[in-house]
Amino acid sequence: MRISDLIISNNYIGNTNKIKDRMSALNRQILSGNKIEKPSDSPVGTSRLFRISDQMGQVETYQKNIKNSLSFLDETVFAMESIQSEVMSIVGKLTEIQNPINQGNLDVYADMIDNSIKIMLDTANTKSDGKYVFGGTDYSNKPYGISSDNQSYQTNTDTSGKINVKFSQSVVQSTNMPGLELFGTIVSSKGFFNTADAVGTITNTTSTIYDNLGNEYQLQTNYQKTAANTYQMTYDIVDGGGTTLFAAPPAAKTLAFNSLNGNLVSVDGSTSDLSFEVNLPANRIQFTMDLKSLSENNSATSISTSANQPTDIFNTLKQISNDLRNGIIPTDDQITAVEKFNSRITAKQSEVGNIINQISTLESMLEQQNFNLQELAQNENGVDLARAVVDLQNQDFLLQVSQKIGAMILPKTLLDYL
Questions:
Q1: In Å, what is the CA distance from 109 to each residue of 97, 151, 317, 339, 390?
Q2: What is the pTM of this model?
């Protein structure tokens, strides 16, 4: 085949353009730091980069969740420490009051306790990023306040909710301390029903509860077996004369148990919440009925009901203050109630500390995961600057050589003679 001047010229021009394109691409890569400028440069690499980018986006979201949660928990710990500081101060004052020398200043001690109550109440309503740290999942109002007649303290919202946050595809962690667990009165039903009991069998329990002023009432609960692994619960609250406090009987609750392990699985069809609130504002009675410790087995039925505290810490301290103003020294039961709350808040601080440790561990893992993903992205799309510069120099050398050779072998034109 005859190689014409036109073929030589076309090949020269084509190769020169390829070298220039390669040099231009290398220059862009050096400036941008990216090997892949468009999907067609590397379809496989582009697909990998999309997957890596998606994973990095998820990790970034989880890291933001951790940052916000740790800030919220730090605020919670600070609030708990502040409350405990006031409680410990009160414990010290209650000890001082036992000394007859100090019993001539009971009004002064009452003033100090009232001041501590105010500080504790304000702290219990602490906010973090617009959310009440002890308000559960209800942010509509301050969770804790004083009644309209200024005689007692009350809970204004449902403080039982838990804030569950996702920190990875498989990890969901509760990131708050529900006020109910710290301040609230929880009446727990514990024990087990005999699976062999006949349908229609009724089990009764009675326990003592108190209103916010310390007045005593009886909580009567009844459990009737209605079918296999199913019971109907009814309850009533009566005063010392046996008179009910309810204008109409409360709605019955349906309890369903797992036939295999005997655990309580639902209350009125709800599997997520095995408790319910009892609130009688007119009688200053407010507590949560917790049923999760009920179960079934093949032993004789044994059910008991008890409260974690007679009244919440705010109303307990209010009673102590009122008694002091009336010249009454705090009782052993009142002092014990304050000390028990101090122990409870210490235990709850440990729980929050464990949550913070778990989240901090996840934070370190996500940081490492993010670093690994960045390395993968760099390996896939990153430019080795030293190598790119050498390649650019080589291409420039090839262009110069090509131009010299072309000048020698390409035919001369009239321009050469002008």
A1: 8, 19, 12, 17, 84
A2: 0.78
